[in-house]
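FORM 12-B: Structure-to-Sequence Request
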């Protein structure tokens, strides 16, 4: 949690410094660049999820091909889209190339974070998260402090980010007998390599979670007047805070979920739900203060809506736990309920609900409830057998699969 907070602080420091070191035009380009890296790096989150689950089941196995393929595709898309990005977003042509270097470094680093998470080496995972944040934002911050300008700062950021995977590889390879040495599963047969299908499933799940939780913010830009859209954006800060605040619980629980420990899912849901309840109650008691901190004095009048925004984030936090549990259980289409919920929100908000602040807000809350119910129903299906742990509630190594049964006679 400390490492995540430090990473978010560095991410926040970049635009704060840029506002003081760059002119308005360059500041807009830098903000766009940061957004592009965030989008292009989403496959890295899916890769980390897939590697963590695979490592928790089988121990350290071959993931080089899947990692290199994911990184190449993520960076290659930015390079291939350079003419389009330069024209549509009005950014210098060299910017996408620099962003591609940073994106590739982030995705490569995600593989090592997944190894540390799957091996339950959480102290080193925290250090790795801090190293990735420093590599991702440190060079840009240094360039801004030295007055290197937009291109110079992005170049410094790309160079420092390129070193991060090397540092994380050494951090992961170093032995740590006092830190989860007994968490590696003992396999009777050679462990399979990480497959492309596992990475695609992880990426799809991560993308679906981001889409469904940010869909209302995007719809606000289309359905609401500019002033109300801005006010809604301030409210979503509270929702995202309630969504991401308890995510450390999922990080800790994922390796055990991958081994079929259903008790860990129950504990993770209980802790996440309790955290969300506290945040909703706090928003109900101090909604005006919450909006003041998020957007300033102009938005204090919206304090009555703070508990609803917090409830949306709290519900999606529980959805996130169930989604990770489904991925860990080897479900084929774990994100299907979330894609359905996102489509439902677009239909309801666009064609049924009134195009007002409260109309969109209640539509978003209903979508969050529906997504949670759908994920809860889906997670009750016996998909955990794919994880090798069946419905067992123990947290030890996954049991070896049984030998194949003899072939049945025809008919």
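FORM 12-B RESPONSE
SEQUENCE OUT:
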């Amino acid at each position: 949690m400390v490492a995540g907070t430090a990473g978010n602080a560095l991410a926040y420091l970049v635009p704060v410094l840029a506002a003081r070191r760059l002119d308005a035009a360059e500041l807009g380009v830098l903000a766009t660049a940061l957004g592009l890296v965030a989008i292009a790096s989403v496959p890295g989150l899916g890769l980390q999820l897939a590697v963590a689950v695979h490592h928790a089941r089988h121990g350290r196995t071959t993931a080089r091909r899947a990692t290199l393929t994911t990184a190449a595709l993520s960076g290659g898309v930015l390079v291939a889209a350079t003419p389009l990005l330069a024209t549509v977003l009005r950014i210098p042509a060299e910017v996408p190339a620099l962003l591609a270097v940073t994106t590739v470094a982030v995705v490569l680093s995600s593989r090592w974070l997944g190894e540390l998470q799957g091996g339950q080496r959480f102290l080193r995972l925290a250090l790795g998260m801090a190293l990735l944040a420093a590599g991702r934002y440190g060079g840009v911050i240094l360039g801004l402090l030295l007055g290197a300008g937009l291109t110079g700062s992005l170049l410094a950021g790309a160079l420092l980010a390129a070193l991060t995977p090397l540092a994380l590889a050494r951090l992961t390879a170093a032995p740590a007998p006092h830190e989860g040495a007994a968490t590696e599963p003992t396999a009777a047969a050679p462990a399979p390599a990480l497959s492309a299908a596992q990475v695609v499933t992880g990426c799809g799940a991560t993308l679906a979670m981001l889409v469904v939780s940010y869909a209302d913010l995007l719809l606000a830009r289309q359905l609401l007047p500019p002033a109300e859209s801005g006010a809604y954006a301030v409210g979503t800060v509270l929702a995202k805070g309630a969504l991401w605040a308890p995510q450390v619980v999922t990080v800790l629980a994922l390796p055990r979920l991958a081994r079929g420990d259903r008790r860990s899912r129950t504990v993770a849901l209980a802790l996440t739900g309790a955290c969300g309840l506290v945040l909703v109650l706090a928003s109900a008691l101090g909604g005006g203060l919450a909006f003041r901190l998020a957007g300033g004095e102009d938005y204090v009048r919206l304090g009555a809506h703070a508990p609803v925004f917090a409830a949306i984030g709290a519900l999606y936090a529980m959805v996130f736990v169930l989604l990770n549990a489904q991925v860990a259980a080897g479900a084929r289409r774990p994100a299907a309920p979330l894609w359905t919920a996102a489509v439902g929100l677009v239909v309801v908000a666009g064609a049924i609900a009134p195009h007002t602040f409260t109309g969109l807000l209640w539509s978003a809350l209903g979508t969050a409830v529906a997504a949670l119910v759908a994920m809860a129903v889906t997670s009750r299906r016996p998909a955990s057998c794919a994880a090798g742990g069946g419905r067992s509630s123990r947290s030890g190594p996954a049991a070896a699969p049984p030998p194949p049964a003899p072939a049945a006679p025809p008919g």
